[in-house]
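Field reference: sequence -> structure
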Amino acid sequence: MIEALSFEFMQHAIIAGILVSLASGIIGSLVVVNRMVFLAGGIAHTAYGGIGLALFLGIPIFAGASIFAVGAALLMAFLTLKHRHRIDTFIGLIWAVGMAIGVILIDLTPGYNVDLLSYLFGSILAVSLDDLYYMSGLLFAVIIIVTIWYREILSVSYDSEFASLRGINVPLFYTIILVISALTIVVAIKVVGLILVIAMLTIPVYIAEKLSKNLFGMMFLSGFIASVFTVLGLWISYTFDLTSGATIILVSAASLILFLISEKFQNR
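Structure field:
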């Protein structure tokens, strides 16, 4: 792995992995606490429509995917706040339509042979310097938002009815959580792909939740754990010439299994 660090693409991959892992730790904690895993999955797959849009219009992938994902997040926020009893139907519909739009737009893109696997399973080794700037800016924005409105986000996440009684604008902060989740999901797709992104958002958080006493601790610890999984997954993928995104997720899953086994023995 030491010799791999001499390559620029590997340096970019490690930096990108850590940036996305830290953002995923924060956002994943909010996703799990708010019980929005299915919502996050819907946003991740809807973002494929944005990838198709970006390719069709010839704009940066992150720009197209971000626009589409944020639009989906705003729509889901509106629908789930007003019609919670039909949440599964709406998410499934937006999920399917978003992916279908992406496929059609890619088909209509003249002279473009898209490598679907790079978007389905990630392409962290192809991260550019511009991608790193985008990821850094997003992580900074997420940290600022969560720091400034930590108490409001905490209240909305654990007890929205009580937060509303305290005068907190629950729909606003619920929407903010979904929007920053959508943007984080977009950059996470670059690392592990849209199929595996939910595992990246939830596995480190599950472990951190068991070891933390509050939401802030969970965010910090899950970001650190996700970073370790990412770097270890990159090392294994480089050593054995494996797909990076899938390897990162398998490392995460194996670590979770070991954690559950050790936890079971400790309880005994």
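Note: The mean pLDDT is 88.
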